[in-house]
Design goal:
heterodimer; A: mainly alpha; MetI-like fold; 14 helices; B: alpha+beta; Rossmann fold; OB fold (Dihydrolipoamide Acetyltransferase, E2P); disordered N terminus
């Protein structure tokens, strides 16, 4: 189930941010797409979507059975998800952590992108790479490192531990999307704004932020979804008193064999898909 | 009607019309071999149209950025109406600025762009609307309020930028090569537009350009920059007719340059066996003239007669060979190789005069009063 939600970072970011340009390019009739490419495309799409196709019907099965296709249809699993404090509580925890982590990651990532944009040369490239490291580091390595250091700082099992760790893995997404938004930003506008009497803070609010806002929003959403979906670090940091939804889902499969996981998965898949569509919808409305 | 409105509007809310800008020993040093701006002193009078002219890298743009507050001073002072602003951040200096690439805010409409400085100053809404309408009328761009910058042509965008830069009645307007990105015809149109608005608003304008023609057309005075220093300050006519140095003479317009290889003292100088009168009034006061000087003559002041012909009395002259004749439409230019050293020069001749041909041996001559002896 995790495969559906884990965003393949570079391609998905590119997909979301390069939306209008891609659409325009498609409008121009270039070479026709060969049939075999269509076949491959459909095959890949089916491969990715298939797990979702299975899990959503299963979520409408009964509490006793856990099979596909379900023998009887009911909303029992959803009722259980929303009434059992183990499930609904962990969803609340996940949302709380994701909101705070993505807020922190967005602030830090945007500030870093703005700062690095004004720097040039080797130092800036080095810092950029350093900030991107968590994307290429295996999750388990990251988790062990976080666990060891958080043990010393007494952050294991605390909500702040989750927020800090998830914010750290969210920063690269914000950095990438804001940097790409800054690519089309004319620094002369900052001077123009200053000459018109606006302080640096006012300039940021009235000029910079509106112009890179889409990049900031995209980054924030990816940071949010990444946190919502993160399981490895969360497994290390979990405590009886505080568990996130992915950890509860992991338990449901490995420890309890609880079919409610089908409802949980469906809810996560649908809501994450909706969240990822936000930047596209925002663009639509802005274009009028 | 336009004039009545503009006179009642922003321009008169400040006490004096225009601001005096004083630069004293202004220096900007990036730590390179030579400072970008090196002890520049200049007084710009209230309401004056001053152009900072010079080749690229001469420090004119850096000087403008120092006035605007976009760069920090290494040393020296900048004051507006006697108040030192050298350490003030850009947004507190109250100076309007026009950029080469317009620098309009792409996410705001024309009206919102123009209202930007007024909103920063917390001016009431109805007053903003009134002023925006007035200033858009002044730059002759009414009815475009709801357009976005990308929907306008380059010339229209620069008009919006101009409106935005003057709507808050700044102490002075700084213009950083604002016409550089426009094509030739549009340039000419906006030049006269800028001149008209300077007249109507009566504010101090500081204009940066590397285009000497533009500088001559627009300016009350020109400060010519050369490697971080001011070479000469004066009216366009002073700089063109009475350059102090060879750099100035060469930068503004075409010239025939006769380097003397030594100083010019007394009433005459010698060049290639000729003796030329040098009336006092034609000798630059620059101290360098005494050690190394050159005689400069503009092409339009040079006449030519065939070798052996009669040179008008009282004129200085030099032997020459015609190497080419260029037809320029309203005149012709004879390209000359002057004297034994075959110094390249040019003389302007009548468009209908086809008596001069390539290879002709001629004598170039001019009135001594029209020449200039400069420091080389």
């Amino acid at each position: 189930m995790s495969t559906v939600m884990t965003p393949e970072p570079s391609t998905e970011t590119a997909f979301v941010t390069a939306g209008p340009r891609g659409r325009r390019r498609r409008d121009k009739s270039v070479d026709p797409i060969p049939w075999w490419l269509t076949v491959i495309g459909v095959a890949v799409a089916v491969y990715f979507i298939l797990p979702t196709v299975f899990v959503i019907p299963m979520s409408f099965g009964s509490t006793s059975s856990f099979q596909f296709p379900p023998r009887e249809w009911s909303l029992d699993l959803y009722v259980n998800f929303f009434t059992n404090p183990k499930w609904i509580g962990s969803l609340g925890n996940s949302l709380l952590v994701a909101v705070m982590a993505s807020a922190l990651a967005t602030t830090v990532g945007t500030a870093a992108a703005l700062g690095l944009h004004n720097l040039t040369g080797r130092l800036s490239r080095f810092l950029r790479t350093l900030l991107m490291v968590s994307i290429v580091t295996p999750a388990i390595v990251l988790a062990v490192a976080v666990y060891i250091s958080f043990l010393q700082w007494h952050l294991v099992g605390s909500i702040w531990g989750y927020v800090l760790a998830h914010a750290a893995i969210g920063v690269p997404f914000v950095l990438v999307s804001v940097t790409s938004a800054l690519g089309g930003f004319d620094p002369q506008l900052l001077r123009a704004s200053a000459s018109l009497g606006a302080s640096p803070l006012r300039t940021f609010l009235r000029v910079t932020l509106p112009l890179i806002g889409r990049g900031v929003l995209t980054g924030a959403i990816f940071a949010f979804v990444t946190s919502l979906d993160e399981v490895v670090i969360a497994l290390f940091l979990r405590a009886p008193a505080f568990q996130t939804l992915p950890v509860q889902m992991y338990n449901a499969v490995t420890v309890e064999v609880d079919p409610t996981i089908a409802a949980a998965s469906s809810i996560v898949v649908v809501s994450v898909t909706l969240i990822l569509l936000i930047p596209l919808l925002v663009r639509r409305t802005k274009r009028r | 009607m336009t004039t009545i409105e503009t006179q009642a509007s922003p321009a008169e809310t400040t006490t004096p019309r225009g601001t005096q800008i004083d630069l004293r020993d202004v220096t900007k040093d990036y730590g390179l071999a030579t400072p970008a701006v090196d002890r520049v002193s200049l007084t710009i009078q209230p309401g004056e149209f001053m152009t900072l002219l010079g080749p690229s890298g001469s420090g004119k743009t850096t000087t403008l950025n120092l006035i605007a507050g976009f760069e920090t001073l290494t040393s020296g002072t900048i004051s507006l109406n006697g108040v030192d602003v050298g350490r003030l951040p850009a947004h507190k200096r109250d100076l309007g600025m026009l950029f080469q690439n317009y620098a309009l805010f792409p996410h705001l409409t024309v009206a919102q762009n123009v209202a930007y400085p007024l909103r920063e100053r917390r001016i009431p809404k109805d007053e903003i609307a009134k002023r925006v309408a007035e200033v858009l009328e002044l730059v002759q761009l009414p009815g475009r309020d709801d357009h976005y910058p990308r929907q306008l042509s380059g010339g229209q965008q620069q008009r919006v930028a101009l409106a935005r830069a003057i709507v808050f009645d700044p102490k002075a307007l700084l213009l950083d090569e604002p016409l550089g990105a426009l094509d030739r015809n549009l340039r000419a149109a906006l030049q006269s537009e800028i001149r008209r608005i300077h007249r109507e608003v009566g504010s101090t304008f500081v204009f940066v350009t590397h285009d000497q023609e533009e500088a001559m057309n627009l300016s009350d005075r020109i400060a010519l920059f050369n490697s971080g220093r001011i070479e000469q300050v004066g009216t366009p006519e002073e700089l063109y007719r009475s350059p102090e140095t060879l750099f100035t003479a060469r930068f503004l317009g075409d010239s025939n340059v006769f380097e003397l290889g030594g100083g010019a003292t007394g009433d005459s100088v010698g060049w290639d066996g000729e003796t030329w009168k040098t009336p006092r009034s034609t000798v630059a006061s620059h101290p360098g003239v005494a050690s190394s000087a050159a005689v400069v003559v503009r092409p339009e002041d040079v006449g030519i007669v065939a070798a052996g012909g009669k040179v008008p009395a009282g004129r200085n002259s030099a032997r020459a060979v015609v190497t080419d004749v260029e037809y320029m439409g309203s005149y012709r230019t004879a390209m000359l190789a002057l004297g034994a050293a075959e110094v390249r020069g040019r003389a302007r001749i009548d468009a209908f005069d086809d008596s001069v041909a390539i290879g002709d041996q001629v004598i170039a001559h001019w009135q001594p009063e029209r020449q200039r002896v400069v420091a080389a």
